[in-house]
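Morning!

This is the sequence you dropped in the shared folder:
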Amino acid sequence: MTAFVCVAALALVIQTGLLFGMYKAARSLEQNAIRVMPKVEALVDTSRVTLEDSKKKIADITAKTSDILDATRKQLVRVDEVFEDASTRARVQLDRAEMVLDDTMNRAQETVALVHGGIMKPLREIQGVAAGLRAAVHYMMRGRGPSPAHATADEEMFI
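The structure's back. Tokens below.
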């Protein structure tokens, strides 16, 4: 039992040494943490200020972006209305132009038909009558027919 007590005492001494070493390490770590703590606090304060500034700027940017998007939507609606109106007006004008062109073509055809029927037909009739009169006058001017001597001479020319 004495040996066991000695081993237990020795284990307690070793544990005490280890605990003292852990105490020293914790103290050293605490000293290092105390030295670094002001720097960390300054960094945290700076980060907090930067984060607050960033939040304000992001909120401002978000608001401005939202305003820009709203204005853009309104402008696009207006542009769409203008294009639709212009397209409708262009269609109406094209329809009107087509109607005017069709009317003009119909009138031109009617005019050509009237000229053809009202002027050309009587001119042809007058030309026919004039040709008949010319033939009659020519026949009368020529006299009675060729003399037999003249007719014989004409026939001899062709033989």
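Headline: The mean pLDDT is 88.

More detail when I'm at my desk.
O.
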